[in-house]
């Protein structure tokens, strides 16, 4: 098996399940009995995205050849995969992302062979930012599209392509006669789909029809968010928008590799996720042994004096209106971000996640621009040393979203070191919060004063 190295030249150690997946990925696909696809399922923080990138790098190094597709359902999850791939030793590989903001885009500043197109693209972007009329904006957008298509046409042969399923299918349908489209039609040997629980059955079937000679790998977690268009129990939705991960698992005749270890954080800081959302099933017993909460550096002690755990529930002073509660939460968040910064935890180590998009927008306006302030959907696949979670809602629909187990699962598992949750007194009585907050979190009272 090819060794996986990071960009500093250090070897990355793989666990047993990851090694099995790498071996499966390298198997030749053809008329033999080798399955045309396999599934990798694991809990949050188990290294699924890293495994997707590592499999592609290992396959390139083996010298087999062909084009590999690394696909994610959304731009935010695709960015996480791109950053993971960038952290590995890939300098000798030809990689292209169809996300124009990516470091692997044809418009990346490091692409010396595409300087003319890069300069023209930058000039058009500047003109677009200065344009005020819709007609001029439409004209410039069409020019940008032509520059992009021309750049793709001369991008050269590729080893790895990163994209969403829709971007790949669009290239096949609408793309010019470029080397990219030619390779997509003839040279794709592997298709890796990360966050397969968010890819619809319709998209997955379209990919199978587009790449009938490729081996497929679907990585995901059944406990995470499903496709936005999927409504369980609705017949049209079940027929077209069901998750690809669910579809493959139902077949029962494809290899299923389970990842058991969690790499994002220490065992004591992931017990609440394992117990409440997974029933400990995806985690090895050794990964859930009891730990002394005080043995690690307490990042939240600078914000919450006297706490003994890095999982803290900050109960806010109750108020008669949701607007007042929102202001109390935002004030407490702003104060604690400032305290964390004074304690040495700046924007690079702190991420704010808001359950409600309206609260996210208000929080983003209150904090310096370089802080990550995300909705739950945007936070999927991301992580930070310290996560501050905002739960105040302004409508009944937003309050209902607080009780969605999949959303809660993602929201409370983004941290490596510490998690601070703000909420009302009633939050701890809602399911699944009533199974999370009382047993696993230190409770403190917060105010904006």
TrEMBL record:
Q: Which domain of life is it from?
A: Eukaryota
Please list the residue ranges annotated as the DNA2/NAM7 helicase-like C-terminal domain: 253-424
The protein's UniProt keywords, in alphabetical order, are:
ATP-binding, Helicase, Hydrolase, Nucleotide-binding
SUPFAM superfamilies listed in its UniProt record: P-loop containing nucleoside triphosphate hydrolases
Is Nucleotide-binding tagged as a keyword? Answer: yes
Keyword Phosphoprotein (UniProt) = no
Q: Which GO terms describe its molecular function?
A: 5'-3' DNA helicase activity; ATP binding; hydrolase activity
Q: Which InterPro entries match?
A: Coronavir_polyprotein_1ab, DNA2/NAM7-like_C, P-loop_NTPase
**Entry protein name:** DNA2/NAM7 helicase-like C-terminal domain-containing protein
